[in-house]
Amino acid sequence: MSNTPYSNAISFYIAEVTAVNPSNTYDQSIDKEIKQKNEPTDRNVKNIYMINCSIIQTGTWSPPIVAKPADLNSSKIPLVGEHVLVFRAYRADSNVEERKTEWFYLTTLTISSDINLNSIPGVADARISGSAAPGNSFKERIISNLQQFEGDILLQGRWGNSIRFGSTVATENLKIEKQPTWSGDTPGDPITIISNNHINEADSFETEHVQDDSAAIYLTSTQRLETLTLGSKNEKNPLRVFTPSESRFSKSQLIGTADRIILKAKTDVAIIDAPSAIILNTTGEVRIGSDDAEISMVHGDVLLTVLQKILNQLNVPIQAAHLTGTFLDKSNISSAQRDLQKLLSSKYFIKRQTY
């Protein structure tokens, strides 16, 4: 890059990653123009996610260079053996009088179209890194690419975690490997899916599965999730009173699935607000206050029956030998009878379950 004003032409080169420096330090001998101490206590937070790489030339590689990510708002740290686009651009200590430059890198090239690792597969001697491992802790895994539908925008991690900005899809005339696991009546209606650890098979596309993915959040507009069923896999407990059921509902929904769900309010209240109903649906136990709660809740209808029988009994004359009598003041019994009619709520219900 020239220091001549208005000369901002950039040349891109393909480079292979030979080392990654997440500690924000690197060997000064590689690039003497950038001065930085190597002691961990002096790490420079302005030089994060740097890599060592070599530019690929015809039949050979360039001497090692150091490159910084071109974008920190959306960053992806490449692995050893992967290829990136590199270019020179202005350094932080540049000014009007002197335009200093350093190397930057862009996104990883999808050489093998593998979402997990994109180095040249199975050809160690074709890489400057030779048989070096892709990282200190990185373990290669089989991760399926998500099936993409027309108009989708996908963000995919290396480990089967993803965000899909998708829609209802008319797939009748599309030649695709996997069908969407959601359906709707109007193509183009938006759906957003955050999924973690979806099904993975070698050389196969996959889609998100609300029941089978380890954890997921679905934001729908008009879609139906026809495979969604409430309750455990061994004991289903679907909606029956409030219809349509969870698998047929076709208005906007926020659905979260995982083995365990925790919602924690750190300094204020936790609120669930709904105009129709709030349902705690479980085939197990409901514990309030603590997970070691031991005091059983009462069944209101049973309690009402018991109290009614007691009040009725109190109104029965008392007989002792040949004498009979009753309470002199029955005003409290009459008052209790009236209050008893208020015992059962018209809004809050529990399902009767006895030991």
Description:
The chain is mainly beta and 355 residues long. The chain folds into three domains: 13-126, no CATH class; 141-271, no CATH class; 285-355, no CATH class. It has helices spanning 300-314, 331-340, and strands spanning 13-21, 50-57, 60-61, 65-69, 83-90, 101-108, 153-156, 161-167, 190-196, 215-219, 254-257, 318-320, 323-325. A hairpin with a 4-residue loop joins strand 7 and strand 8 (161-167). Helix 1 packs antiparallel against helix 2. Mean pLDDT is 84; it is low at 24-43.
Brief write-up:
With 355 residues, the protein is mainly beta. Helix content is 7%, strand content 21%.
Report the β-strand fraction as a percent range: 15-25%
Rounded to an integer in angstroms, the radius of gyration calculated over CA atoms is: 34 Å
Please trace the helix and strand order, writing H or E for each element: EEEEEEEEEEEHEEH
**Global outline:** elongated
Kindly state the number of beta strands.
13
Low-confidence stretches are: 24-43
Determine the mean pLDDT.
Answer: 84
Q: Enumerate the strands of the largest sheet in spatial order, edge to edge or round the barrel.
A: 1-2-4-6-5
Please give the count of helices.
2
The helicity comes to: under 10%
Largest sheet: 5 strands, mixed, barrel
- Provide the domain count: 3
> Which structural category do the helix and sheet elements fall into?
mainly beta
Distance from N terminus to C terminus (CA atoms, Å) equals 80 Å
